[in-house]
């Protein structure tokens, strides 16, 4: 019992959502967060001043580290967002190092459609640090392994890297 209490106390949030906001219906995340709050689940919600641009903020990194569960919502252009991939990389680190739980949802895409790890920024890949790109690739592979090795991110999609 004591270990359960200690475990519960080390998390500031119950859940952190990793998603590409432009791919989701405007009310999807707001409705989800409200429903979770209504049933007593403390989900991270950035304040109105948080930057949801392509750069990952310190606030977001800390929220990932302080969340017991991370949920990634894979959508059509999820992998076109360096911010999403950076968040996923941090999530995979926390899964490995902090015992964070990881779940995923496919939003308006079928798992069999595959998700290109390069997304729409493939033409701009030379502008990214190769080590960073490798971390993104590794995070996607880990997520794939956690999804049951169903090869959602494998095969031809990685041939571009």
From TrEMBL:
Pfam families, per the entry: TIR
UniProt keyword NAD present: yes
Keywords: NAD
GO process annotations (BP): signal transduction
UniProt cross-references to InterPro entries, sorted A to Z: TIR_dom, Toll_tir_struct_dom_sf
Residue stretches making up the TIR domain: 11-161
UniProt-listed Gene3D superfamilies: Toll/interleukin-1 receptor homology (TIR) domain
PANTHER family: TMV RESISTANCE PROTEIN N, TMV RESISTANCE PROTEIN N-LIKE
Entry protein name: TIR domain-containing protein
Native species: Solanum pinnatisectum (tansyleaf nightshade)
